[in-house]
Write a structure and sequence with these properties.
Oligomer: single chain
Strand order of the largest sheet: 3-2-5-6
Number of strands: 18
Strand content: 5-15%
Distance between the termini: 48 Å
Radius of gyration: 25 Å
Helix content: 40-55%
Structural class: alpha+beta
Largest sheet: 4 strands, mixed
Length: 634
């Protein structure tokens, strides 16, 4: 079947398309003194990695844009994250290169961004890159004008190519700033209020049908999942299909869901030794992973496998969910706060990708018993050529083990884990409110299975309460340092986690706190022209949108709408109905990218443990609460 493009991944790119979408505030000024590198001891582990670079990195702030305006220089905005392999490669090759650093410092205002701290900015820049160079991913490097308009973008480049790119961009900017400025001003469309015409019942059903048709087209009927190049989990899309299977069983969909669930759990997307899921595989057969493990993937997949166990009546999926939660507890939980770190890195401390997870035949022979090794040769395909450049192997189940093999296979995984018990895999120790909201949902829903999960949920709830200060959320914390600038996703995922905790443990305080977060989310991020992911964006091309799409994470706007409906407060229900009335041409063109919004439009409740509970009725925009008598707060 036709495959979907891999989407936002991490990988090299070599295209540069210089696009004249720029704004310039006056003629270039004489060179001014650039402040030194400001990233040393930054609370973000990713930004702190760049603290010793010869590049004079600045943070993304109004102060930095003012510096760009005073100097007349372009901003060089480089976006990455701690777990990203190619971000580490470009760091080593280019940002520690004295010649490249000197050129950046002489001609640009270099800015380093941790995408997990500025997810709204990252999403906007990724959208710009997709339009300009028809690619996305990290590291993403965007040249931005002093007034905050993107000019052009480039992903990973080797040092020689990268220096050539810097030179070309600088030469063009110095030659024709006024022309580029004029083009930039006309490139950004004016913001207009939304009409709120809404979708009728037939139109909502048509969106769902169009999603299902697209999903069938994108589905890989042989290997499971979506796409013919790389394989990502696509949990929001899979969740819609699974929830629909619970209400409208279909043998073909059910068979494909089992194929996908089994492939993700058995092959190389999942780490069978340490537990947890990797971010994605670079091939369509789930064989070669990129080795980063993200909190957001594992929290979502744990919930997805728990639901699959109930809906598809297969306890094997509950076992996968338990293993995933156990990985989070063992490798990502901060013992002091009870919260969870953002990720484990794809590279070890020597900059080698995947070394912690790969084994030579000789190393396996030395650590496994003859019986284990015999089974491993068959199940792990040790007698076939390795798919990795190193010639080593990743233990994964390419042949299904028999019932009599399972105990021996588990003991083999245990032997390997013990052999590298002290393996130090770097972790991004930021604890972010939104991502921990996903974890709170997962452990709350799993609390009925294990007292350890109940205790984890209770500890995480205490952390989440501490992020609410003076009527607003913190982005999270790193160590004991607070991280400011909470975004829409933090309010949405955090509130959903509080609601799951409240429903699992009958905790009214958690429900009331969720109400406060949802209400503030509407106030700070909903406008008459649509949703903003940031409260006060500095990038001028960031504009409100009627509907936000799902990516690796569910649409934060749709999650906030869902939380509003779950709270059953009249004023929030009115807000939710109004937002569901906003039409989106983008969703109509590509419904596959909007499963959470489409679920809500068709009466589903994607955030509920019973996901088929009614969310919104045919009355898509109820009367404002003052016309109906606003009820008491929950």
């Amino acid at each position: 079947m036709k495959g979907r493009k891999a989407g936002l991944g991490t990988g090299p790119a070599h295209l540069l398309v210089l696009v004249s979408l720029v704004l310039f505030s006056g003629l270039a000024c004489a060179s001014s003194v650039l402040p030194g590198n400001r990233l040393k001891d930054n609370p973000s582990p990713y930004l702190a990695l760049h603290g010793e670079d010869p590049v004079a990195w600045q943070t993304w702030s109004a102060e930095t844009l003012a510096l760009a305006r005073r100097s007349g220089r372009l901003l060089f905005v480089s976006v990455g994250y701690f777990a990203c392999h190619w971000c580490h490669v470009m760091h080593r090759e280019s940002y520690r290169n004295p010649r490249i650093a000197a050129y950046l410092n002489a001609h640009f205002i270099p800015v380093k961004i941790d995408r997990e701290l500025n997810s709204g900015l990252d999403e906007a820049l990724q959208g710009f890159a997709a339009n300009v160079i028809h690619q996305g991913g990290w590291p993403l490097n965007v040249f931005v004008t002093p007034q905050g308009y993107p000019l052009t973008a480039v992903l990973y480049q080797p040092p020689t190519d990268f220096l050539h790119t810097l030179t070309r961009v600088q030469e063009r900017w110095s030659e024709e700033p006024a022309n580029l400025a004029s083009l930039a001003r006309t490139a950004v469309s004016p913001v207009r209020p939304l009409s709120g015409a809404g979708y009728g019942a037939e139109e909502r059903r048509a969106l769902l049908d169009a999603f299902l048709i697209q999903a069938r087209t994108e589905a890989d009927s042989l290997a499971g999942g979506f796409g013919e190049v790389a394989k990502f989990p696509h949990v929001p899309q899979l969740s819609l299909l699974l929830n629909r299977q619970s209400t409208s069983p279909d043998p073909v969909t059910g068979s494909w869901l089992r194929l996908t669930l089994n492939a993700m759990a058995s092959r190389a997307l999942r780490d069978h030794v340490y537990g947890g899921f990797f971010r994605y595989t670079t091939d369509p057969g789930w064989t070669v992973p990129h080795f980063e493990k993200m909190l957001y993937d594992n929290a979502q997949l744990a919930m997805f496998y728990l639901r699959a166990a109930d809906i598809l009546h297969d306890l094997r999926y509950e076992k996968v969910a338990r293993s995933t939660l156990d990985f989070l507890l063992e490798f990502l939980r901060d013992p002091a706060s009870g919260a969870f770190y953002s990720s484990t890195s794809a590279v070890d401390r020597r900059g080698k990708e995947g070394v912690a997870y790969l084994w030579s035949r000789e190393a396996l022979q030395a650590r496994l018993s003859p019986q284990q090794m015999k089974l491993a040769r068959r199940i792990w395909h040790l007698d076939q050529p390795s798919p990795f450049d190193s010639g080593q192997y990743l233990p994964a189940e390419y042949e299904p083990p028999g019932v009599d093999d399972e105990a021996l296979l588990e003991s083999a995984y245990g032997s390997l884990k013990t052999a590298r018990a002290n393996q130090d895999i770097p972790r991004d120790t930021k604890m972010l409110t939104g991502l921990n909201g996903l974890a709170l949902s997962a452990f709350s829903r799993a609390g009925k299975l294990d007292i350890r999960y109940r205790k984890a949920a209770a500890g995480l709830y205490r952390f989440m309460r501490g992020q609410w200060r003076d009527g607003r959320l913190q982005k999270g914390q790193s160590g004991r340092q607070a991280l400011r600038g909470a975004e829409l996703e933090d309010y949405a995922y955090g509130a959903a986690g509080l609601l799951d905790f409240a429903e699992a443990f009958k905790d009214e305080r958690a429900r009331k706190l969720a109400y406060s977060w949802v209400k503030r989310g509407w106030q700070d991020f909903s406008t008459s022209a649509g949703w903003m992911r940031e409260r006060a964006p500095l990038l001028k091309s960031m504009q409100p949108r009627a509907v936000l799409e799902d990516g690796a994470l569910p649409s934060p706007a749709a999650v906030l709408i869902d939380a509003s409906l779950r709270l059953k407060a009249p004023e929030l229900a009115w807000q939710a109905g109004r937002a569901l009335g906003w039409r989106s041409a983008a969703m109509e063109r590509d419904p596959f990218a909007y499963p959470t919004q489409i679920t809500l439009l068709n009466g589903g409740c994607p955030g509920c443990e019973n996901p088929t509970a009614s969310g919104i009725t045919d009355s898509a925009h109820p009367a404002p609460p003052e016309q109906r008598g606003a009820g008491a707060r929950p």
